[in-house]
Design brief:
Blueprint lengths: L3 E4 L2 E4 L7 E2 L3 E6 L2 E6 L11 H17 L16 E4 L6 E13 L2 E6 L1
Antiparallel strand pairs: 1-2, 1-6, 3-4, 4-5, 5-7, 6-7, 7-8
Length: about 120
């Protein structure tokens, strides 16, 4: 499992135990005011001994290679949208994307909203 992504020319090492959140298809990480959505690779520990999930991850990643570069720009601010793609070394494979992070006070508490 690769724990390194590239955002532009910036190399980012990720620590799975420091993920902001974990979902079925990806882990989320905080990085310099952004949220990084990193798709789980077939060799991710969450898919250990789960061949169906490994196969689904492989298919999902292949699909994202085609879909993410075509994502429209200039969407309304409240739409959760990729701001930049995350790549492997050499920019051969898209591993995920970066999104804006906004912290806003809601009901006297700090609440996190991902836009």
């Amino acid at each position: 499992m690769n724990n390194t992504v590239f955002l532009g020319n910036q190399r980012i090492s990720l620590t799975p135990t420091k993920a902001l959140a974990k979902g079925g298809e990806a882990d989320l990480y905080l990085h310099q005011g952004s949220v990084l959505k990193v798709y789980k690779q077939p060799d991710h520990p969450d898919f250990s001994l789960r061949p169906l999930e490994q196969s689904a991850a492989k298919e999902r990643i292949a699909t994202q290679q085609k879909k993410l570069p075509l994502f429209p720009n200039n969407l309304p601010e409240k739409i959760i949208a990729p701001k930049a793609l995350l790549w492997d070394q050499g920019k051969r494979n898209i591993l995920g994307y970066a999104m804006d992070l906004e912290l806003a006070p809601i009901g006297g508490k700090k609440a996190m909203s991902i836009w």
